[in-house]
Amino acid sequence: MVVIPFENASPTPGLEWLGESFPETFHEQLNSPILYLASRDERLRAYDRQGVPAGVHASRATLYRLAEQMDVDYAVLGSYSYDGARLTAVTQLLDMRAQKLLPAVTESAPLADLGNLQSALAWDLLHAIRADFSVPKDKYVASIVPVRLDAQENYVRGLLATAADEKVQLYREAVRLNPAYAQALLELGKTYYAQHAYEPAIAVLSQVQGSSAVAREANFYLGLAAYAHGDFAKSESAFAFVAARLPLAEVYNNLGVVVARRSQRKAADYFQRAIQNDPSDADYHFNLGVSLTQVGDRSGAARELRSALDHHPNDADAKMLLDSVTPSAGSGGIVPSSTTSKVPFERIKRNYEENTFRQMTMQMGSWAEERFARSDPRAHARFHIELGKELMAHGFTTEAEAEFRHAAAVDPSSTAPLTALAEDYDARGDAAGARTQAEAALRIRESAEAYLILARLDLRENRTDAAAQNINRALQLEPGNATGQDLKRTLAAKLAEKAQPLSQP
């Protein structure tokens, strides 16, 4: 799906930024493993190829050609108007497969309720695409915490700004107004990184919560900023966060670069994973060649360096290193130590290709599964768990359950798929199913997460003794667990309420 910026049908000045806010909000809410939404960068590239200025509202014929060029299934068109009291937005879904423009849907609300209005429109679009979408509209809208209007305005104006200093100012204001605004934190951190302001980039990107939809991208840039700043431990941790969730070649490569800087011996393993995922990238072969050179495997290094030169024949560093590890004629097979000591540094990758990867995985499911199968079972299962959680967040409960069950089959020794299933059942109101899955997880291994799911179910059923036992077991495993501490306070309040004497008449 591509969402075209909405057209301003209102004469009220100062509201032009709203047009870009609709694609941004829909991308945040609708982008999922089931539905791929083109990013703003992808849309702008398509505009450029069509020769359409980004700020111009093109004709429907031009927009149709743009959607056709992008090879999308759906294009979202819309407009908005403001009468001084209420904002009204109208949207239509263009079904490219059926070559049909669906009937328009309209939502209206006070301008201050822009977030809820956009969530309602997002639900309208989902329902138009999937008539069996099971989440009621009011529940869907209530489940999404809207961004403050002034914070969203600063964020969108930051996207539209062309000067880096102006972007920083606007993103900083968005974060000041809404400190948990993950998208604003990401863009601010990326802007700092592009300016080589690595310390502020690290500080900002570290604030993105791990549960956020942009956490993977934020950690990728956090890894780059920490690497550039010389904090290799933080860089390794950030790249490892991404690698545990997505088997991207550039992430495995960067993990190899960082662990090599930390003088660890497993760098070659990461470079080999990168090559398995993308054998055509010369830098991955070059980096493995460097790594093998450092451990004295000259034949292996020569093989990888030749592969690098096959893909990039003018690579001077690869040629120099290959010459240094290859015995010259008349040398008796001996490589001079003075040449092998001058080993170049490995190359880090600055391109983050999650969007490209997600497009390929949606279009080539069986190929993607084969690619994941090359990962260790834990990483493979983790990917499906993360997919399941994203699906749950978007209301696709049936698909989420399938992902969790697949994860459990991939890694039967892990409790994470079963606790995720328990959360899924609990969210659907199936307390018995949630309890069964949490207990199954505990039969594999004790975990605070499973105990706390049981405690939450116990509290709901007024089984205070059982709840107390499960909370205590969880806190024995993880004394600092915030959810456990919250449940302990909830239990204490419940017990205090029960202990109150009856009031006298």
- Give me the number of helical elements: 26
Terminal CA distance reads 65 Å
Largest sheet composition = 6 strands, mixed
Helix content: 55-70%
Question: What is the CATH architecture descriptor of the largest domain?
Answer: 3-Layer(aba) Sandwich
CATH topology of the largest domain: the name is Rossmann fold
Give the strand content: 5-15%
Give the CATH level 1 class of the largest domain.
Answer: Alpha Beta
Stretches where pLDDT falls below 50 for ≥5 residues? Answer: 336-340
Dominant shape: globular
Instruction: Assign the CATH superfamily of the largest domain.
Output: ABC-type transport auxiliary lipoprotein component
Q: Averaging pLDDT over every residue, what do you get?
A: 88
Work out the count of structural domains: 4
Radius of gyration: 27 Å
Q: Give the beta-strand count.
A: 6
**What class do helices, strands and sheet pairing give?**
alpha/beta
Descriptive overview:
This protein is of the alpha/beta class. It has helices at residues 18-30, 40-50, 60-70, 114-129, 137-142, 149-160, 164-177, 182-194, 198-205, 215-229, 232-243, 249-261, 267-277, 282-294, 298-311, 316-325, 337-340, 354-363, 365-373, 377-393, 397-410, 416-427, 431-444, 448-460, 464-477, 482-499; strands at residues 2-3, 7-8, 74-82, 86-95, 100-101, 105-110. Strands 1, 2, 3, 4, 5 and 6 form a 6-stranded mixed β-sheet that branches. A hairpin with a 3-residue loop joins strand 3 (74-82) and strand 4 (86-95). The termini are far apart. Residues 336-340 have low confidence and may be disordered.
